[in-house]
Design brief:
Blueprint: H1 34-45, H2 55-58, H3 75-80, H4 88-91, H5 93-116, H6 118-142, H7 145-165, H8 168-174, H9 179-208, H10 216-237, H11 267-270, H12 274-305, H13 322-357, H14 359-382, H15 386-415, H16 420-427, H17 429-451, H18 461-480, H19 492-502, H20 522-546
Helix pairs in contact: 1-9, 1-10, 1-20, 5-7, 5-16, 5-17, 6-7, 6-10, 8-9, 8-16, 9-10, 9-13, 9-15, 9-20, 12-13, 12-14, 12-15, 12-17, 12-18, 13-14, 13-15, 13-20, 14-15, 14-18, 15-16
Length: about 550
């Protein structure tokens, strides 16, 4: 694996063609080639959302037909056992590792990314994510849980962090006229990765399955190889605009009429401003509410609607037979897939809308509409309306995804574009925090309600009101966000020095030499097809499962 030294420079072997200087766009480059390059990486690392497809096969990796359980085994013993199957709960810790390491690695190496450029960061992300799958495959083959956690969870998590933030600064600089849309297109891919990866993993597991293997370690190897190729294509597709470039004919909006600054705040100063921490809480609270629902979407639908999902409206969950519970579990899986689809679509829709109504107003919509929909959910459950219930949560999950896609543009508006990728990396610690808060709130309240004897179809009513309170707090934080105090702005000389140290290429006047022109030309359309066809296949597979709900 490639390491990053203490000075923030990659080893000499990573130099040359990976240097930032080699990625500066020249005459004739089309800026519409950059979003599909970002999607190549995000669609691969987005499989982190779909890793639960491996849990059941891995829980019987030794027993094969059924788990070889050791009920009294401790988690420490489970890390090294070769005679007992792993518990699904222990495998589920992979999600915590993914998103905690993602936030930490993005925060630690965001500054290095700005200096090294997106191509080098994309290659390192490819090595870490695919290398993590390779090490995870060895862990599965040897039946060593600690090796699976280290490989796919920790090393793969570093790949997640670097891959996630690698295109942000570049896209914001290429599309100053459409910041939200540009970041929405890329970050949409992170939500879509599981829609492609989960059904692909199922196909590969069934292909590799034998009487002596559940097919998971072989699937890890195959997907690692596929992802490595796609992520390298994305990394080498990155280009950065020359310093001073802007789209021909575009003029920055007046700062007096918008909250979009034309100045820049240094990475070392951004976290000293109240704006950074207010946006941190805005993201954390929005994500905490959404991620808690994602984790419990399947059991929530099953316990609330129970027999009505299979035409037995008067049959409660505890009265269902084992066969009937299997049937509604399949329908609930379709609901989870439908939420994923809205999570993806919301990333593009809401981020694009923010270009027109402003980032602050977009988050007002997230919080106000979210409060109304969470408060409505218990009523939808009480009247037995699957359409109203599912529709409410589809919109909620679209805003969950929209929050991720809109925040890079919000940061660029507040702090300028010079260090936006690194600032975004540090802000993603809010995601790591939300990944703990959201599931803990939802899961523990559910357990407390069960212990209190609350009927299963009413288990989540109190939870919805707690999530409403979290969104009210987010609404207040968003209201408090004002333009950054000018004392934090970098001087023009400091900006010029930062740009000169990042690349030796000369700056160019706006629109010069045809850089950035071309629209959706034939090469751009071909590149879009490379990512669009797999994404369309994933959407189709998701809709196939989701239609069963209704």
């Amino acid at each position: 694996m490639v390491s990053i030294d203490s000075a923030g420079a990659a080893p000499a072997a990573m130099g040359g063609i990976l240097d930032r200087d080699r990625t500066i766009a020249t005459a004739g480059f089309n800026r519409w080639m950059v979003p599909p390059a970002a999607l190549c990486i995000h669609l691969c690392i987005g499989m982190a959302y779909g890793f639960s497809v491996f849990w059941l096969p891995l829980s019987r990796a030794i027993g094969l037909d059924k788990p070889k359980a050791c009920p009294d085994i401790s988690i420490v013993q489970e890390l090294v056992t070769t005679t007992c199957d792993w518990k699904v709960a222990s495998l589920g810790w992979m999600y915590t590792l993914f998103f905690v390491i993602l936030g930490v690695s993005a925060a630690l190496w965001g500054g290095w990314l700005e200096r090294a450029g997106p191509r080098k960061a994309g290659v390192v992300a490819a090595i870490c994510w695919s290398g993590g799958l390779l090490l995870g495959a060895i862990g599965v083959y040897l039946h060593q849980l600690w090796l699976l956690w280290l490989g796919s969870g920790v090393i793969g998590g570093v790949g997640l962090g670097l891959g996630y933030i690698s295109p942000v600064s570049t896209l914001v600089k290429w599309f100053p006229d459409r910041r939200g849309m540009a970041t929405g297109m890329a970050i949409m891919g992170f939500g879509g990765g599981a829609m492609i990866g989960a059904p692909l993993a199922n196909l590969l597991i069934n292909h590799f399955k034998t009487p002596t293997s559940v097919g998971v370690w072989e699937t890890f190897l195959a997907m690692g190889a596929i992802y490595f190729v796609f992520m390298l294509v994305g990394a080498f597709g990155y280009r950065v605009p020359p310093a001073g470039w802007r789209p021909e004919g575009w003029m920055p909006p007046s700062e007096g009429r918008t909250m979009i600054t034309q100045h820049h705040v240094h990475l070392d100063d951004a976290h000293k401003t109240p704006q950074f921490w207010l946006i941190w809480w805005v993201l954390c609270l929005n994500v905490s509410a959404g991620i808690g629902v994602i984790g419990m979407a399947s059991p929530m639908l099953q316990e609330i609607f129970a027999g009505s999902l299979i035409g037995l409206p008067d049959v409660k969950f505890n009265a269902l037979s084992a066969e009937q519970k299997v049937a509604i579990a399949g329908i609930a899986a379709g609901f989870t897939g439908l939420l994923s689809l809205f999570n993806i679509g919301g990333r593009f829709f809401w981020a694009s809308l923010s270009d027109y109504i402003g980032r602050k107003n977009t988050y007002y919509v997230f919080f106000l509409l979210g409060i109304a929909l969470y408060a409505l959910a218990p009523s939808a459950a009480a009247i037995g309306s699957k359409l109203l219930f599912a529709g409410s949560f589809c919109i909620i999950l679209s805003m969950y995804g929209g929050g991720f896609a809109t925040v890079p543009a919000y940061l660029a508006d507040m702090f300028g574009t010079q260090y936006v990728g690194a600032i975004h990396g540090r802000l993603l610690t809010a995601w790591s925090t939300a990944g703990i808060i959201g599931p803990v709130v939802v899961n523990y309240i559910r357990e407390a309600q069960l212990a209190a004897g609350v009927p299963r179809d009413q288990l989540y009513n109190f939870t919805m009101y707690i999530l409403c309170a979290m969104l009210v707090a987010g609404l207040i934080c968003n209201y408090l966000i004002k333009p950054v105090d000018p004392k934090w702005y970098m001087s023009p000389e400091a900006v010029a020095g930062a740009q000169a140290s990042a690349a030796s290429g000369a700056s160019v006047p706006s629109g010069s030499f045809g850089i950035g022109r071309g629209g959706l030309s034939a090469p751009a359309l071909l590149f879009w097809a490379v990512v669009g066809i797999p994404l369309a296949w994933g959407i189709w597979k998701t809709l196939e499962g989701a239609i069963k709900i209704f």
